[in-house]
Each structure stands twice: as C-alpha cells, then as structure tokens.
Amino acid sequence: WDRERAQMRRRYPNASFNDASTAVPFPAAMQALRTWIGELVGRPSDQLVGDEFLFVTCGDWDVKTALPRQCNKPTPGTVDFATQRLLLSRWSNLKEVFRQHFQLTPAAAPTGMRGMLGRLQLPLAGQHHLGMDDVGNLAKILRRVVLDGAKVEPTGHLGMDGERVVAQSAARAPRRPVPRPSR
After folding, report:
1. Between β-strands 90-93 and 55-57, what pairing exists: parallel, antiparallel or unpaired?
2. Inter-axis angle of helices 81-88 and 26-41, to 10 degrees?
3. Single pTM value for the model
4. Which of 71, 65, 74, 67 is nearest to 1 (CA)?
5. At what angle do helices 94-101 and 131-147 cross, to 10 degrees?
6. What is the pLDDT of residue 81?
C-alpha cells in the first residue's frame, strides 16, 4: 500500500481514505490478543500454553487460512512464528461440534450459522455476516450446545510441517435429539 499511496490518491477521491484511523498494525493486534488471552487465563503472555485456550469459529477458514495469510503479509514472519504457532495451532469448528453433539450425518447437518440457529429454534439477532452480530449469534449457539452437554474440543490442528490439516473427530458421545424448527 505504501508504494502505491500516490497512485491510489490520484485514482480515488479523498473521502475514500481514512487518514484519521487509529487502527494498530496487524502484528501489534496479534500481540495484544496474546496479551489479552494471557490475562484471561492468568498467565504472562510469554508463558501461555496452547491448550489453555481454544478459538471457536464457524468453519475452518478464519484460523486455517485467513489469519495465517495475514500474519505473513507482506513477508513470512511479519507476525512472529512463535505467536502464530501459539494462537493458530488449534481451533474448534462450531459446525463440527454441533454435528458431532447431535450425531448428524454430514448431509443432515446444518452448513452454517443460520442452519444451527434454526435447528435450535433460536432467532437470528441483527444482520447475518455483520461481524459483531455473527459473534453474538454464534455465542448463543455455543452456549446452548455446551449447556446441553456438548464437548468443545479442537477439530482443527496445525500439522508439524506447518501445513494445516483438519483433525479427525473425537470419539462420539451418545446421540442427542436435535430440536427441529416448528413450522
């Protein structure tokens, strides 16, 4: 972006640029995340252990693909590799937790947040795909399945060679009935 700044300013109107942005650089945001997680678990960030926390996502893409790409732009190691390994080495895909908890076949399982909300007869709050609205809706789903006894365990892991692989699912719990939306 810095190399293209003059050309971009010629091409687009001034209103297109946020010169007053207070955003921090991505590496600083990742370090702040590491510090915050340390505060949550009661450890200094340099003493965090990966099995003390777990990101829960709706799908694998965010932790498997998007965050590692961003961590390595513009060059590999922009976010130090130790932080990447710590924060991105394992995650739990809520869709997989939901499918396993209710013993659904892949064909019968909801494919996204709206489907899970519908199966649980929970209303969609806000607008789908609007960041914080999705966070609230996914938290409602997670809360409901945890209260129903779901085990939230890692469903995705970082392979030893740095390549991300999706983990095999854990042993299955007894089948639980899935609420069906009333029509």
Report:
1. parallel
2. 50
3. 0.78
4. 74
5. 30
6. 92
